[in-house]
Amino acid sequence: YVEIKVTNSGSGTITISDILIDGTTYKNFNTTDNGSVTPSLPDDLDKGETETYTITFTTWPFQSGAKYEFTIVTAKGHQFSYQKTAPY
C-alpha cells in the first residue's frame, strides 16, 4: 500500500477528486485495475483538515528503486505533485 497525507492549507473546503500515479489515475495504474483508495473519492477536506489516503494494491505495481510521481487532483482541476522513490 501507499499512504499519501494531504493537508488543506487553503481558505475554504476543497474536494479531492482523484489521485494520479505517474499521470495515470490510481484506478488504472496497472493493467489488472487492482487499486483501491481509502477514504473513497471524491472526498471533501475542510480548511485546515488533514487526511491520509491509503492506496492498496493486490499486486504490487512498483519497481524497487524507481521514482514515481503522485498527484492529488481537486474537483476544480488543481494538481499537487510529490515524487518518491520506491524502496529497495
Q: In total, how many beta strands?
A: 8
Cα shape: globular
Beta-strand proportion: over 45%
Distance between the termini: 15 Å
Summarize the helix and strand pattern as letters: EEEEEEEE
In round numbers, the mean pLDDT is 90
Q: State the helical fraction.
A: under 10%
Give the structural class: mainly beta
Tally the helices: 0
> Which stretches of 5+ consecutive residues score pLDDT under 50?
none
* Gyration radius over CA: 13 Å
**How many strands, what sense, and barrel or not for the largest sheet?**
5 strands, antiparallel
Structure description:
Helices cover 0% and strands 52% of the residues. The protein has 88 residues and is mainly beta. The mean pLDDT is 90. The radius of gyration is 13 Å and the shape is globular. The strands form two sheets. Strands 2, 3, 5, 7 and 8 form a five-stranded antiparallel β-sheet that branches. A three-stranded antiparallel β-sheet has the order 1-6-4, with no helix packed on it. It is built from no helices and eight strands.
